């Protein structure tokens, strides 16, 4: 009965392609406004982009960094302003909220950190970007997150009322091992807040999202900030949801907006029954080992 209920369940997902500026308070209040709009339009899971409260760039991370609670559950009075704002709007709207990412400071180290909240405002868990962006394309683009950030050492998957969701951040898309691990954990939806750029984005963003979805036969969404050609970093935009067949269900252009997609979980089982690769793994020949705990 439970399996049937899940097999037929479907829900609306909202990807908020936010225009991010240099004022943190404005970024937070505009993000909350968009979460309210997405909830009013019937979304059950809402996701924000990478670095939604600060401009993207190694020169900004330290100035915008906040502490993130060490414990899950309702954030205490000492929680940072972004954590409090996200928790509050998730509770007000009764949605699962994947809070994009923010620069975090913890014991003198900096991280690119995503916090996820339940509909009661409780912090469900944090994901610190595991693979840090290291891009050097001579004459075109250079940025190295490892110059400032430390990598996270844990993955994050959590249960919603419909399915288990796995979280990665941007450059993590380049490492299909993470998607495989979430697939093995039973996730049916992967959410990657991101900020690809106008050099790598046109070639790699959609390709990586679709590849991850097709290889693991599950839903994958990438959530970008909007493109701003006056900023020092030109985010690619093009937030999108891809289905387990590897097809783009819905996508944005480069401008600010909310992308809505219907996640019909029965598609996961349908695609897996049509082409049973998830049941054909040759674990006698190779392995994917999850060395972390949830
Ligand atoms: N910003 C990133 O983390 C990644 C990126 O832009 C890229 O891989 O290209």
From TrEMBL:
UniProt keyword terms in alphabetical order: Hydrolase
UniProt keyword RNA-binding, yes or no: no
Pfam families: CN_hydrolase
Every CN hydrolase domain range: 11-265
GO cellular component terms, semicolon-separated: mitochondrion
Enzyme Commission number, as recorded: 3.5.1.3
GO molecular function term, any single one: omega-amidase activity
InterPro entries: C-N_Hydrolase (IPR003010), C-N_Hydrolase_sf (IPR036526), Nit1/2_C-N_Hydrolase (IPR045254), UPF0012_CS (IPR001110)
Protein family per UniProt: Belongs to the carbon-nitrogen hydrolase superfamily. NIT1/NIT2 family.
Protein name, entry field: omega-amidase
Species for this entry: Geodia barretti
Lineage, opening ranks: Eukaryota, Metazoa, Porifera, Demospongiae, Heteroscleromorpha
